């Protein structure tokens, strides 16, 4: 029998019964913490002038005057309606091939180069890297109409278009009869899909490049990288034969001829015959109502026009120089930058130009003047000096947080590093001009040119910000007090280096992830070289830290330098525990290297039994499936947080439970309180607020965690397996840690049943309130204990009320919770918490709790303690046993 060793016992049956029923419902569940999500920086705009375009390609107009844009490097198709509002009509911004049969805005495209619209309003997309042509019907549903997704070998003529092989198609158009024309670019042919879905070649010889055949059948001719397509009023098909530096036409009889260009590249011929002019990579073509045609003469940075009646060529827009100028003035003296697309609006006599490398759509009116029509002129970022939440970012890929509340953001596609003062919300530029390039060393970082800054590392002790200037194959450093930038590692040439090389003399190959330890040593992952280097702060020399520079997965449990990793996109150094965490992206795992021993292990992701996937929530992290995780971070409380990028989710490993769960995102790309799109970076701010680079949504978002489970109480005494104890036992345990700062109560379980079944329920212990029910063996004893503290004139006084009700054995059976076992039976499991700085439980060790009970003699007892945070989280200790004498 167990009794509490307290005074002043009274009977109160009603309270005891109510409390008994309530405690019978207690259970242990490892739930994911709640997450409050907000946008910190970045927005989208429906104003075309503020929209972010990246290398817009083909453009097309529908019958109503709406303009469609193949926003190539954003992997979407945009539409600017006649009211001047821009929206996405196809693509979710994730470069992939998904979504057929569903909404087009949920589908993934991969660098679409061209777009066309038929008379009914159906949209056709040259989904270039996916090697297919897709259609979006008037209900917004997307499907594939040509191509099977594989580029080689050339095949399919005479059969269904969806079984044919296309190779990087870069042009598409549709005629009034519904026939679809395809510039099957790298197959060097133009193909047609008729109304029955059958595909055939109408110009070129599949897979054979060349320049021949004028005056004969188009199917016997040779083309070289056909791009743009257009049809005139007579049904003649115009083809921009890109690498043949010419425009060719196939007439209604199937005969091909050259109508512009000579086959040699250059820039000449204005006011003369188009067939004597020199072009340089002609791409888009547009035809007006008079059959005059316009050529996007891309690498001459000009738009040329040919008068159909005379065959004379002239320049409509551009000077042949590369750059940007001239808006509001004559188009002929404006400067363009590699224009790839053109479209003509007959109703308003306007020419639209896709000014590709300026990331703009420009328009030439009937008077010949040029104007800015759409795009912000950057691949991404605008808004310095304003609120970060109103700023246009292109592709925020990573961020770091400083102790003064500054959040630094690597805007990968904007080729800049931005800075947000989180106390005011104001954003400014730290490094980069927004134009990609490699320049500016030893000058102001804001005047330097970067090329795909992929990640950052902040060494606050040394006032240094490191930038992975990925496509320049270098790591840059900015000394923050002066803002001066210089190259810290890399030569600018991709390649390999030998250990102990000076970092500035090392040939890096796409440096991507960065981390810095408390000694100032810098860790660099090279995603194309499959390894991680370490630059010693004192010597400035680089040596291998992890990987054998081979694209494989092995080595767990051994030295990291003997292991293999694959394209580690993200690094995080846990300074408290001297461990480097690695987002081993293409192995779909998270790994950790103990910097003290050099030993590497996997802490999340199941590479052994599979590859990419989305599973495992609520279980062991190493049994879960991840999908191309690009970032990992560790909070000061030992929580491991993962950007599970291609699952569009944020995963979380509890430091005390060791279990993995999803805390944000739902596996599908989107933008809402429950959706992310390709999250690519994570950093930790004050109070363990997480900042996530939601790259597909062009935003940085914050996550504030709550309802996190407390650590497991550490048992102190009576010791496990102790014997011959007095039957008056004092139970002592270390208090738990709660990352949310919740007030904890403790459920003390003491039972002569190792399963804690039958009639064993806890005594609840708190520093403020103690109340509970305890059953021992078959004889139930119910306690209700209240403690109140009050300060009186004479100092601290204490009043205690204790009620005891003893029921009969029959009533005990009615109120008993039944034989349910203890759901915390695996309380000793700390899987997945390794390396997180606190995995597997453990209190703070500063204070203990205790409770004294009178027990039966000569009995074996089992005991454990649960920490209860009051929000539904119960964390159990180990189970210990003892014997009374």
Distance between the termini: 14 Å
Q: What is the approximate shape?
A: elongated
Give the beta-strand count: 63
Beta percentage is 35-45%
The main pleated sheet reads as: 6 strands, mixed
* C-alpha-based Rg, rounded: 34 Å
- Overall residue-averaged pLDDT value: 84
Uncertain segments are 1-29, 767-845
The secondary-structure class comes to mainly beta
**Quaternary state of the chains:** single chain
Helix content: under 10%
Number of helices: 2
Keywords:
885 residues; 39% strand; 5-stranded antiparallel sheet; mainly beta; 6-stranded mixed sheet; single chain; 2 helices
Task: Characterize the structure shown.
- Helices cover 2% and strands 39% of the residues.
- The chain has 885 residues and is mostly beta strands.
What is the topology?
Blueprint lengths: L2 E2 L4 E2 L2 H12 L9 E8 L14 E6 L5 E5 L4 E5 L5 E5 L23 E4 L5 E5 L4 E5 L5 E5 L24 E4 L5 E5 L4 E5 L5 E5 L22 E6 L5 E5 L4 E5 L5 E5 L21 E6 L5 E5 L4 E5 L6 E5 L23 E5 L4 E6 L4 E5 L5 E5 L21 E6 L4 E6 L4 E6 L4 E6 L21 E7 L4 E6 L4 E6 L4 E6 L11 E2 L8 E6 L5 E5 L4 E5 L5 E6 L21 E7 L4 E6 L4 E6 L5 E5 L26 E4 L5 E5 L4 E5 L6 E5 L14 E6 L5 E5 L4 E8 L7 E4 L4 E4 L2 E7 L10 E7 L11 E3 L6 E5 L2 E14 L2 E11 L3 H7 L32 E7 L5 E9 L5 E3 L3 E5 L1
Parallel strand pairs: 2-59, 53-63
Antiparallel strand pairs: 1-60, 3-51, 4-5, 5-6, 6-7, 8-9, 9-10, 10-11, 12-13, 13-14, 14-15, 16-17, 17-18, 18-19, 20-21, 21-22, 22-23, 24-25, 25-26, 26-27, 28-29, 29-30, 30-31, 32-33, 33-34, 34-35, 36-40, 37-38, 38-39, 39-40, 41-42, 42-43, 43-44, 45-46, 46-47, 47-48, 49-50, 50-51, 52-54, 54-60, ...
């Amino acid at each position: 029998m167990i009794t509490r060793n307290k005074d002043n016992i009274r009977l109160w049956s009603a309270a005891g019964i109510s409390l008994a029923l309530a405690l019978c419902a207690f259970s242990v569940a490892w739930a994911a913490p709640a997450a409050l999500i907000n946008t910190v920086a970045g927005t989208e705009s429906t104003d075309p002038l503020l929209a972010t375009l990246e290398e817009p390609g083909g453009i097309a107009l529908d019958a109503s005057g709406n303009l469609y844009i193949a926003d190539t490097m954003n992997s979407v198709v945009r539409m600017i309606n006649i009211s001047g509002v821009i929206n996405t009509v196809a693509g979710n911004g994730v470069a992939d091939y998904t979504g057929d049969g569903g909404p087009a805005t949920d589908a993934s495209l991969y660098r679409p180069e061209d777009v066309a619209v038929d008379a009914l309003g159906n949209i056709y997309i040259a989904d270039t890297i996916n090697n297919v042509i897709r259609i979006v019907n008037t209900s917004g549903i997307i499907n594939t109409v040509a191509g099977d997704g594989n580029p080689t070998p050339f095949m399919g003529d005479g059969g269904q278009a969806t079984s044919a092989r296309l190779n990087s198609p870069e042009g598409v158009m549709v005629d009034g009869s519904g026939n679809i024309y395809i510039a099957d670019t790298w197959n060097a042919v133009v193909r047609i899909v008729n109304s029955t879905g059958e595909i055939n070649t109408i110009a070129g010889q599949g897979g054979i490049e060349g320049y021949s055949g004028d005056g004969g059948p188009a199917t016997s001719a040779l083309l070289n990288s056909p791009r743009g397509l257009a049809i005139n009023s007579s049904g003649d098909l115009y083809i921009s034969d890109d690498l043949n530096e010419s425009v060719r036409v196939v007439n209604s009889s199937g005969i091909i001829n050259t109508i512009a260009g000579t086959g040699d590249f250059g820039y000449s011929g204005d006011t003369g015959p188009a067939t004597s002019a020199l072009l340089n990579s002609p791409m888009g073509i547009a035809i007006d109502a008079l059959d005059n045609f316009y050529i996007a003469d891309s690498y001459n940075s000009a738009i040329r026009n040919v008068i159909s009646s005379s065959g004379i060529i002239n320049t409509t827009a551009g000077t042949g120089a590369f750059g940007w100028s001239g808006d509001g003035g004559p188009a002929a003296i404006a400067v363009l930058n590699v224009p790839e697309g053109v479209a003509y609006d007959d109703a308003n006599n306007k020419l639209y130009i896709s000014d590709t490398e300026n990331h703009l759509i420009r328009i030439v009116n009937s008077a010949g003047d040029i104007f800015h029509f759409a795009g912000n002129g950057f691949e991404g970022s605008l808004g310095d000096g304003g609120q970060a939440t109103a700023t246009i970012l292109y592709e925020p890929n990573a961020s770091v947080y400083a102790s003064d509340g500054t959040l630094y953001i690597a805007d990968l596609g904007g080729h800049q590093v931005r800075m947000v003062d989180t106390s005011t919300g104001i954003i400014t530029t730290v490094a980069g001009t927004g134009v990609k390039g490699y320049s500016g060393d030893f000058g102001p970082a804001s005047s330097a040119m970067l090329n795909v800054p992929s990640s950052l590392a902040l060494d606050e002790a040394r006032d240094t910000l490191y930038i992975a200037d990925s496509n320049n194959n270098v790591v840059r450093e900015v000394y923050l007090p002066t803002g001066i930038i210089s190259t810290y590692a890399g030569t600018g040439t991709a390649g390999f280096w030998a250990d102990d090389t000076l970092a500035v003399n090392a040939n890096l190959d796409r440096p991507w992830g960065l981390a810095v330890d408390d000694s100032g040593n810098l860790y660099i992952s090279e995603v194309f070289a499959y390894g991680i280097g370490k630059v010693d702060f004192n010597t400035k020399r680089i040596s291998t830290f992890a990987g054998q520079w081979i694209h494989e997965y092995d080595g767990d449990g051994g030295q990291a330098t003997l292991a293999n990793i694959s394209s580690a996109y993200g690094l995080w150094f846990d300074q408290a525990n001297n461990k480097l965490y690695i987002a081993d992206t293409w192995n779909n795992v998270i790994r950790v290297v103990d910097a003290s021993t050099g030993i590497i292990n996997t802490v999340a992701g199941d590479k052994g039994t599979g590859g990419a996937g989305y599973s495992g929530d609520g279980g062991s992290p190493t049994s879960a499936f991840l999908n191309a995780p690009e970032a990992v971070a560790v909070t000061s409380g030992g929580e491991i947080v993962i950007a599970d990028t291609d699952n569009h989710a944020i995963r979380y490993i509890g430091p005390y439970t060791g279990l993995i769960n999803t805390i944000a995102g739902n596996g599908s790309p989107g933008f809402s309180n429950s959706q992310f799109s390709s999250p690519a970076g994570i950093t930790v701010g004050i109070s363990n607020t997480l900042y996530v680079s939601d790259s597909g949504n062009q935003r940085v978002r914050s996550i504030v965690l709550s309802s996190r489970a407390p650590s497991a109480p550490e048992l102190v005494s009576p010791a496990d397996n102790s014997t011959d104890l007095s039957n008056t036992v004092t139970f002592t345990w270390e208090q738990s840690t709660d990352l949310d700062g919740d007030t904890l109560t403790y459920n003390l379980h003491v039972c002569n049943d190792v399963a804690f079944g039958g009639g064993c329920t806890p005594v609840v212990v708190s520093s403020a309130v103690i109340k509970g029910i305890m059953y021992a063996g078959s004889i139930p004893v119910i306690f209700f204990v209240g403690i109140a503290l009050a300060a009186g004139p004479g100092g601290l006084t204490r009043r205690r009320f204790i009620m005891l009700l003893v029921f009969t054995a029959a009533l005990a059976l009615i109120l008993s919770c039944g034989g349910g076992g203890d759901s915390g039976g695996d309380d000793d499991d700390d899987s997945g918490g390794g390396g997180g700085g606190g995995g597997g439980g453990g209190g703070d060790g500063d204070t203990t709790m205790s409770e004294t009970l009178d027990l039966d003699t000569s009995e074996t007892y089992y005991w454990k303690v649960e920490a209860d945070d009051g929000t539904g989280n119960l964390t159990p200790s180990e189970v210990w046993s003892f014997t009374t004498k």
